[in-house]
Amino acid sequence: MLRDYSVREAMRRISTYLNNGSCNTVDFITHDTLLRASTDEDMKRDIESMDIAVATSNDILQAGSFSSRSREKEINSNLFLKGMLRKFVKEKRSIFLISETDARLQGFKSALCTFYDGLNIISSAVREETVGGDDTIVNEINGCMPDIVLMNLESPDAETFIRDNKMKLGSQLIIELRDVSLRINGDGAVKRGGIGEMLLRKFFKNAADNYEKTAEAENQDENPATSMEEDNGKIVDI
Q1: Where are the domains of the chain?
Q2: Which ranges of the chain have pLDDT less than 50?
């Protein structure tokens, strides 16, 4: 189950996370992420343990049967990501970047600066080039003590890194940002389209429909609703 928050509530939580003395986690969830998690129990648990799991497509909320026009607009306009990065700039928060290859790191940095060129990026790491692996990266992070760790890794590597290293880091936030949220139009909205994305969305919809039918068959005597209001968030059971 994933808990979905409005942008207003998610931003309120980000403010809390930046000041609560703990290392909190945010994962931007895609169709591909959920499809992988559907066959990987460890990855599923890792995603469900995130403090905020951000839906990057309205299809994900539709699968939970409670998509709304306001949330669709928030998702399509990339409102949460833009608001979060703007907050980091305004508060002069220090940021450490992680990506798998140098080419991806440079693309990641360029994409972030497309949103706001005032981001305080103090250091970075490339996983494939780091001798000693993730332990070395953790030491590098703790050596410069950034407020935020921004990652652009593939699943399940992203979730595994967070699970294995969350308690070792002195940062306030670890955020996994995926390519879909970084491909944007001139106004910062998510750029949709492409045959690959269309096929993935169709496959995801079919998988979600099949899940829903199976769940209904197994719970005929129970309340058929698969989502509810709880603690200012909505629960997506997929």
Answers
A1: 2-236
A2: 194-201, 203-204, 207-215, 218, 224-231
